[in-house]
């Protein structure tokens, strides 16, 4: 089987002492081996990033911006190749893979504006003859650790801003779909990025720990599940690094009785089952206000899912592909099969669907009368399973959501502007949609959840990423002028 290796200082690298297997989830066939970096190999990547740092941070802003303009062009031009790589290792349908690429391109477009983004501030005459200005300087080598579910978009969330700010990067993509990161690194270099500025190490905890423990890595961006995010945050912070660690999610979509229920059902089906539910902003809980709303919604969602086409992501007819691994598929199935015993009502049982071949497919499930305390409600399932929680009032809906440990995204469906405005005010969640089920902010805003969905104080990409990937320096200046000087041992005052 072909071996997927690391990319260090512009070259393929890695002896592959340890390896993992990369499957095509649609066929279940093992298609590649992937090298798992040793501590030494990861340190080589960090050394390459450190060596590239002085020249890259000294590169003019205009030249840096030029790389992003060219990268944008290349991403658009090669999107079919890149989407095919995503689909063959992740399984999502090609149109979804292209959607991920286009959302990633937003971050490249944002980074191309770096000349504006890196402007400092200046105050003249803060004291007689004294001026103050601030500059934003790169933090140094940045470690980026990414999840399997967006093998292009999430690396672009991080690398575009980090590199634009003058940093160099060691990217550790998911070992489940590692090829897209190498393709991205090649495109960056084709766009003019010097070797060593973006290095890719493949692997697992060994590579991640080497990044977290290296004194040469100054900042860590992580996106993945909450248990790993917690440990990454603690270890990176204990080692004195700046860290942002985005975790898992359980996103609730509230449907008020006055909502357009057909539009809400369409939105719920799209947001729950798109990408087989393997999106951190997927809707996994439908909160129906009032039994009448719930009964109508459940019927409408059930009617719609009956018409979904599940199959190989390369088939243009497929609307939903397989899950990432066989083990994950079986775990998702266990939540559905266990739901009835927990007291919920399984309206559509996706585990009963049959598929040809050995792909990691599962049908979509709809589970009614779910409540907190049931595993199907409490856990992030990360599969095509939509739970319905029935509540009696708007207030109960808000209390339910605010009590969830996850707080990535949420949405309210209503025709009432007052209700929507109050929801925006009351809800304790990082990203909110009003009649928009997946409110992923555009690249000019930052992305991030609250509570167990993000550890650290900076959201990712957008303006907060410029803050995260730079250190501010403030310079106070006095130039000799013609006024006489004198000795003064008092504390310098600006008055
Ligand atoms: P994961 O936490 O298993 O893995 C994420 C990364 O961490 C991978 O690169 C993996 O190799 C590495 N890793 C795994 N175990 C590790 C360990 N013990 N020590 C160090 N590193 C380790 O997540 P995943 O399954 O790849 O991705 C799905 C998860 O990511 C879901 O929970 C999803 O909600 C979350 N996610 C969150 C966001 C967000 O923005 N909040 C976005 C995308 C995905």
TrEMBL record:
Q: Which PROSITE patterns match?
A: ALDEHYDE_DEHYDR_CYS
Q: Gene3D superfamilies attached here?
A: Aldehyde Dehydrogenase, Chain A, domain 1, Aldehyde Dehydrogenase, Chain A, domain 2
- Could you tell me what this protein is called? methylmalonate-semialdehyde dehydrogenase (CoA acylating)
Q: What is its EC number?
A: 1.2.1.27
- Domain (Aldehyde dehydrogenase): residue spans on this chain: 18-475
Origin organism is Microbacterium terricola
Question: InterPro entries attached here?
Answer: Ald_DH/histidinol_DH (IPR016161), Ald_DH_C (IPR016163), Ald_DH_CS_CYS (IPR016160), Ald_DH_N (IPR016162), Aldehyde_DH_dom (IPR015590), MeMal-semiAld_DH (IPR010061)
Pfam annotation, one family: Aldedh
Q: Which UniProt keywords apply?
A: NAD, Oxidoreductase
């Amino acid at each position: 089987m072909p071996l997927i290796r690391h990319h260090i200082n512009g070259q393929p690298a890695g002896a592959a002492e340890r390896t993992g297997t990369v499957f095509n989830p649609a066929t279940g066939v093992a298609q590649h081996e992937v090298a798992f970096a040793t501590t030494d190999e990861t340190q080589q990547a960090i050394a390459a990033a450190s060596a590239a740092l002085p020249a890259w941070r000294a590169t003019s802003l205009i030249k840096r911006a030029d790389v992003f303009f060219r990268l944008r062009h290349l991403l658009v031009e090669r999107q079919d190749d890149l989407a095919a790589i995503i689909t063959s290792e992740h399984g999502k349908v090609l149109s979804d893979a292209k959607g991920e690429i286009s959302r990633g391109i937003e971050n490249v477009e944002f980074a191309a504006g770096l000349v504006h983004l890196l402007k400092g501030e200046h105050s003249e005459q803060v004291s007689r003859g004294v001026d103050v200005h601030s500059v934003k300087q790169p933090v140094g080598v940045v470690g980026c650790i990414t999840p399997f579910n967006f093998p292009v978009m999430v690396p672009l969330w991080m690398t575009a801003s980090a590199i634009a700010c003058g940093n160099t990067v060691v990217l550790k993509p998911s070992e489940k779909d590692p090829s897209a990161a190498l393709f991205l690194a090649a495109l960056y270099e084709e766009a003019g990025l010097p070797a060593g500025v973006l290095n890719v190490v493949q692997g697992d905890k060994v590579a991640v720990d080497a990044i977290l423990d290296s004194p040469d890595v100054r900042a860590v961006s992580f996106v993945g599940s909450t248990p790993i995010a917690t440990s990454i945050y603690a270890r990176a912070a204990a080692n004195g690094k700046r860290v942002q660690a985005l975790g898992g999610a359980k996103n609730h979509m509230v449907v008020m009785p006055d909502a357009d229920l057909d539009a809400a059902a369409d939105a719920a089906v799209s947001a729950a089952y798109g990408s087989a539910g393997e999106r951190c902003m997927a809707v996994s809980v439908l909160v129906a206000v009032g039994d009448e709303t719930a009964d109508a919604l459940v019927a409408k969602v059930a009617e719609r899912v009956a018409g979904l086409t599940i199959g190989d992501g390369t088939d243009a007819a497929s609307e939903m592909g397989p899950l990432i691994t066989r083990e994950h598929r079986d775990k998702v199935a266990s939540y559905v099969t266990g739901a009835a015993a927990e007291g919920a009502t399984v309206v559509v049982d996706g585990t009963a669907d049959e598929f040809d071949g050995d792909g990691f497919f599962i049908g979509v499930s709809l589970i009614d009368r779910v409540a907190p305390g049931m595993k199907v409600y409490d856990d992030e399932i990360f599969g095509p399973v939509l739970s319905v929680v029935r509540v009696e009032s708007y207030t109960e809906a808000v209390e339910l959501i605010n009590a969830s440990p996850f707080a990535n995204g949420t949405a309210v469906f209503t025709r009432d502007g007052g209700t929507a405005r109050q929801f925006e005010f009351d809800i304790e969640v990082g990203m909110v949609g009003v009649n928009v089920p997946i409110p992923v902010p555009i690249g000019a805003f930052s992305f991030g959840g609250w509570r167990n969905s993000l550890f650290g104080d900076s959201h990712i990409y957008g303006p907060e990423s410029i803050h995260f990937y730079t250190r501010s320096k403030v310079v106070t200046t006095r130039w000799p002028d013609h006024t006489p000087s004198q000795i003064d041992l008092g504390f310098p005052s600006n008055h």
